[in-house]
Amino acid sequence: MKKLLFSLFFAMLLVLGACGGGGDEGASDDNTSEEQTDQSSQDEAGESTEESGDEGSESGSGDGATDSAGAEEVYQNNCSSCHGGELGGGFGPALTEVGSKYDAAKIVDIIKNGKGQMPAQSQVSDEDAQTVADWLATME
Question: Which of 25, 26, 63, 139 could be a cystine partner for 56, CB 3.0 to 4.6 Å?
Answer without folding.
Answer: 63
